[in-house]
Amino acid sequence: MQVNFLGKNLISPTVLASGILGNNFDILQRVHASGCGLVTMKSIGPTPRDGHNNPTVIDLGHGMINAVGLPSPGYLHMEKEWADLNNRDFPIVASIYGASVDEFQQVADYVSDKKPDFIELNISCPNSEKHGMLFGTSPTASFDVVNAVKKVVKTTPLIAKLTPQALDIGEIAKACEDGGADAICAINTLGPGMLIDIESRTPILDFKKGGLSGPMIRPVAVRCVYDIFKATRLPIIGLGGITTGADAIEMIMAGATLAGVGSAVTYRGISVFKKITREMDQWLKDHGCTLEDIRGAAH
Amino acid sequence: MQVNFLGKNLISPTVLASGILGNNFDILQRVHASGCGLVTMKSIGPTPRDGHNNPTVIDLGHGMINAVGLPSPGYLHMEKEWADLNNRDFPIVASIYGASVDEFQQVADYVSDKKPDFIELNISCPNSEKHGMLFGTSPTASFDVVNAVKKVVKTTPLIAKLTPQALDIGEIAKACEDGGADAICAINTLGPGMLIDIESRTPILDFKKGGLSGPMIRPVAVRCVYDIFKATRLPIIGLGGITTGADAIEMIMAGATLAGVGSAVTYRGISVFKKITREMDQWLKDHGCTLEDIRGAAH
Amino acid sequence: MNKPNLTVEKKPIMFRVDRTKRETPDHVTLFFNGTIQFRPGQFVMVWMPGVDEKPYTISYHGPKTFGITVEAKGRFSRKAAAMKPGDLLGIRGPFGNGFDTGTGERVCVVAGGCGTAPVAPLIDMLGKDITLIQGARSRDLLLFKERYPSLNGHYCTDDGTFGHKGFVTELLEQAISTNTFDMVYACGPEIMMKRVFDICEKQKIPCQVSLERYMRCGFGACGACVCGAERVCIDGPVFNSEKLRQMENFNQKALLKSGAEVPLSTYASWRCGENISTTN
Amino acid sequence: MNKPNLTVEKKPIMFRVDRTKRETPDHVTLFFNGTIQFRPGQFVMVWMPGVDEKPYTISYHGPKTFGITVEAKGRFSRKAAAMKPGDLLGIRGPFGNGFDTGTGERVCVVAGGCGTAPVAPLIDMLGKDITLIQGARSRDLLLFKERYPSLNGHYCTDDGTFGHKGFVTELLEQAISTNTFDMVYACGPEIMMKRVFDICEKQKIPCQVSLERYMRCGFGACGACVCGAERVCIDGPVFNSEKLRQMENFNQKALLKSGAEVPLSTYASWRCGENISTTN
Ligand SMILES: Cc1cc2nc3c(=O)[nH]c(=O)nc-3n(C[C@H](O)[C@H](O)[C@H](O)COP(=O)(O)OP(=O)(O)OC[C@H]3O[C@@H](n4cnc5c(N)ncnc54)[C@H](O)[C@@H]3O)c2cc1C
Ligand SMILES: Cc1cc2nc3c(=O)[nH]c(=O)nc-3n(C[C@H](O)[C@H](O)[C@H](O)COP(=O)(O)OP(=O)(O)OC[C@H]3O[C@@H](n4cnc5c(N)ncnc54)[C@H](O)[C@@H]3O)c2cc1C
Ligand SMILES: Cc1cc2nc3c(=O)[nH]c(=O)nc-3n(C[C@H](O)[C@H](O)[C@H](O)COP(=O)(O)O)c2cc1C
Ligand SMILES: Cc1cc2nc3c(=O)[nH]c(=O)nc-3n(C[C@H](O)[C@H](O)[C@H](O)COP(=O)(O)O)c2cc1C
Ligand code: FES
Ligand code: FES
User: Fold this and answer.
1) How much is the pTM?
2) Whose CA is nearest to atom 19 of ligand 1?
3) Is A299 contained in some domain?
4) Chains in touch with D (≥3 Cβ pairs < 8 A)
5) ipTM for the complex?
6) Among residues C121, C114, C111, which one has the least CA distance to residue C41?
7) C5-95 has which fold?
8) Complete DSSP assignment for A271-292
């Protein structure tokens, strides 16, 4: 089930979300081999960072909560990864983050030289004191960071990853489009939320708060993609709670071009990409239509 | 399990959330008789309003999505209710909404004469084009509406009901406190979200988007109450996904004074209030402590 | 894809109309392929994408099929009655308590107009000594007239074109005078339900009647359907004598879509499309 | 309140330490009242509120009790080893694949240091013709020395205070030369695992070894624990010969907390607290 995304041919309309598995090249390759059309690296930061102590990720059954806290070797300490990237035969998104426009620019400048197929700007992470979400909730800040990065990366297509916490996510998407983004990825985790253990009277996550993902956030993700589709002409990676082919079809009908998958790896294994692709394919066959036919069909 | 809330004695620390059941006095009385400490009327508006067509409420198992759309007879057409209120022997919250500060003032002025124990300002509903949520996401607008209402209601204690969509809910709570609010209720429904039926390619809710409630939003509600507790000294009605006594204890540990219950009526019946109260009571006994002891204990 | 079991799924499950059957000039039954576990008297919320969603009683059920019978009246039901095989509808449910069928051997079933829909599967299930009393405006509007040929049926019409000219309540009084009933089941307009209840109270026969209110959620959350302190969607739609005795609003009051409590006559006028604003 | 079944619950379930047992100067077992369904080799994430959460193998299990055995080394494990009955810990799990126990009659179990913890319930369960080879730094650090008195045990210590002076791998080579094994199970430092694997490869005996990496989620989502393309938490922690042959990073590379891929020796230094920044 080939699809074209910003000029690249993908073997499936499914995308591995950033921060799921993507800690090294080998596992990205395994995910690709499991039928994933486009794999995203764990978000890369300007300097080495450990992230938070455990507990960092808890499964709630109908979704997950996490505050991993943007661990990263830092873009300067990933020679092995950059070398591996050079020998790849499948498309990769490099996700990056920073605490300022300067940092985003600096990381993007370096990373674009390593020639990933796309660079994703994580302007939407709730799990750090100072990175990300601040940008993604302000149209002007979103414009600024995308615009600044666009200047340095020149040809690498840019994907802006947005947060559902934005009051008007359509407006943010439009600002990113104006700033030079080539696509939108939505959504990052929702909330944040908090779990308190009542026996020890302690928040369970070491960072106390964490972002929600998985099936429970899907209605919000679908609404966000719907709003973004209305507000821009950019292709959208619809992400948030997708677990089945039907979920992916729903996201496409909201306006997505590709279907991102994160937490579902937990619920259906790494083969979830193959499974979702097969289920989508079957559905399209049963209904005698193509992905193009149904994109944005719910509008 | 008596508790005191702003000077009123309640038979239980549980509160019926607005918009759940509270369409007439008889059912409020039934909920009270089922062990609920404080019952809230369905939000009352300035003029008669039908709300949205069906589907308006869908159960997703781990929570609900709704866009009822603030139906209301309008405060001028509720003589029967106001008369019933006069003869009550249990405390009641009148929830009100408006599309402007003027409308809030007008409804509050009239309603306070009917002597409910509390007036709740619904500045947080996502299910209408122009009511509510706009206020609850801006500190200045929140201050303005609370302040304006405070001037006309004089003695009726005011509860400001907040939305998790606020970027910094602590800041909003503080603005409400500064405006004269006597308590905070958090949270209203989350999102909004959207469900699309892929066979008909149509959003399922007639209003397309709807707010999420129930177990799936609990982590967000707990985090909001935690943030509000940090930001203000006001008592908090913690609301969002509470279904068991343990859930209520968790909310109290986040900083709530009372535990609001909405969607759980669906999952455990109207007797959920009695059940939760009993479970809380048992837990406190087992742990040899009081509600006071554990309030905010997770901080 | 296999249809999931309706009692587990909570979102509307989409069904294509399998076949339709014109029952009378006003009534059409829509059949669906699917299993549904339900008790007679329970209802489903029927969603017509882009139009609205309304409660309908399950009127037919087989091992692999079920049906609802629609009286073409207003905007929604006219569209529903005009549906063709292959058309899509969403179904949520079943909801409500349904009739309590574990009560006594000799029963009387009273149905008026479209009220025959919920009692049909009741009759299918009871398999007891059943007296059926059914009324309609006119002969050709008598629903399911041929469905129970072996049944002890008493019929009446407003215009006298079939059976007794008059009301089902008259036939009920007559039947009670010559039979001993352990239970009377009834469904029809609320004024008729009230008369049935009064008759049964006088004769000290327990009864169960099915009521109707404007509904939103269907499962007891929103309070749109309250009749006093009872939620018609989940505490009902079937209420027994004991409950009815305490229901002050029975045959008296109902809520409009706005939540305004009005006399039942005002509610009926709204429901009957007399362009009364639902926000009075 | 009854403890929910651990295999269903996903949040940490809180347990109070029921009793503790000092196994050696370095090792303490914490016992909990609760049922846990698990396979030997599986682990749980153990949360000490306000401190951290780390993976520990289940080392004891009974019908109503289970235990973990902690080697007091660093910040977390020292606090854990010092816990008293009544202290609270949160437990998530069990996670991981565990050992495959359906393989052949004659098995050899090789354990080094704290690696004895996961193989103990394996020995309990196997009930086969078992040869145990166990090593430690010194006599008093030999974990569970009295736990399997009837077992065919071969011991070694670094300092020669008990059994053979030397490495378990030497004992393994010896045992292989005089026995036929259908399977070798091993747990211990990764360098020892590599030697065991090499010996088995040479002798064409299949083996299963348990590995260790820094973990976050424990259930295959975050990728923190990857060894090449394998997630140690869910594809492992037990890997068989077939897998090991393809794992280039086995005994070579590991990720630090930051995700930086480093030589195993660097990782070990970090783990051994030599104040190497985890972000290299
Ligand atoms: C528990 C329950 C079970 C039900 N089961 C059935 C069933 O099995 N079959 C069935 O046909 N209906 C049933 N109904 C009624 C059904 O839900 C609709 O109200 C009805 O079909 C009319 O909808 P409408 O959209 O056509 O009317 P609306 O578009 O809602 O507007 C009113 C219009 O409908 C007509 N109308 C609607 N309701 C009534 C009424 N109660 N009395 C008189 N006129 C009315 C009027 O002519 C008017 O034009 C049930 C209702 C409930 C609460
Ligand atoms: C699947 C799995 C199962 C495990 N089962 C057990 C078990 O049953 N029993 C058990 O005791 N541990 C087990 N561990 C290791 C355990 O999770 C911790 O890493 C260990 O207890 C040390 O934690 P710490 O907090 O004390 O060390 P940290 O605070 O994390 O910091 C490092 C410090 O710990 C010491 N240290 C930590 N790890 C090592 C190591 N691998 N080698 C040498 N020194 C180290 C150092 O002395 C140093 O001071 C297991 C790990 C995994 C991945
Ligand atoms: C454990 C975990 C780690 C994540 N790390 C990142 C990250 O580093 N960068 C990022 O942009 N998103 C990160 N996310 C968010 C996901 O990419 C995704 O947006 C989110 O989980 C919603 O998708 P899902 O519901 O399919 O999981 C992370 C999510 C999880 C669960
Ligand atoms: C069907 C429905 C109707 C609601 N109507 C209102 C309303 O009129 N006014 C209001 O302030 N909140 C309304 N809410 C929000 C609830 O009061 C509550 O804030 C929310 O449902 C979260 O609590 P819960 O998870 O316990 O349901 C409504 C919620 C539901 C599910
Ligand atoms: S329809 Fe919602 S409570 Fe009955
Ligand atoms: S610890 Fe998260 S994938 Fe292994």
Assistant:
1) 0.95
2) C54
3) no
4) A
5) 0.94
6) C121
7) Elongation Factor Tu (Ef-tu); domain 3 (2.40.30)
8) THHHHHHHHHHHHHHHTT--HH
